[in-house]
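With this grant's support, we have settled on a layout for protein records. An illustrative entry appears below exactly as we store it:
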Amino acid sequence: MAWWDIDPFWPLLIISQLSGFGVVGIMTYWIMEYKKGQFSWGKHDGGTISYHAFMFTLGMVFLFGEAMLLFPVPKRLHLRSHFWRKVMHGCTQSMAIIFSIVGLKAIFLAKKEGGHHEFYSIHSWVGMASAMLFFLQQGVAIFFYVFSKFFGLSKFFGPRFMIRFTSMHTFFGYVLFAMAIASCLTGMDRWIAIFVPDYSLRPTPTLLGDIYALMMMLYGVVVTYLTTRPPTLKKKKSTHHKKLANGDRGEEEKGLQPEKEDKQLNDNDHELTPMKKGDAENNI
């Protein structure tokens, strides 16, 4: 077996999980070790914004990617029920929505605590666009995939519309996944610029932020590949000699098959053709 015949799905899946959990772990460690206030809600000590970074990393990136993987992984485990795959996908995305809402609430509260109400940075614009489009995407998906089924509205759309909608839903899902990763990367860069005063000395928080960015990009690339990769080609077991033998045998079978079919047809015609009156009298 050549190395290119090995199926890379499961090794890449392990890499995606290690990088995904690593991103969440690095964010948690960064907040606990280097962020003033750590995790605190509404105490005016700078800890509220920590929930914003953690919730968006967990919801908009990690859970988003895990929801995407819930289609190819069960299929590889021979769980053929597409309905339950969609149910698990929808539940995971719903959890991502809840975490994202908490993250948005945290940033608005942190802005209010600090006396800043403006959103002027690239991170703010990309993050707000990602969150709003993500909520819109999930709302439209819930309407067409859930409410239209339970309330009998799917008959008004037709199967062709649902096929096109599913294609658009998948496409915009990848777009939003990329936007969410871009939002988290710009957010980490902004955090380092604000909370790490000696940035030029390359302290440990800066290095952790760089590792966080690289692992998040790795997670996004691997998840995208696993959910869009073409099916693995099956290895051909027959040799050249067997192909020739099968070809000769096939030609012989092809040469004999018409005669056999003609014989069967002649027999059937003989059995099914009614006899004429004169022939019947002669036979008697």
Summary: The mean pLDDT is 80. The radius of gyration is 31 Å. The chain has two domains: 3-228, 240-283. Residues 240-283 form one domain.
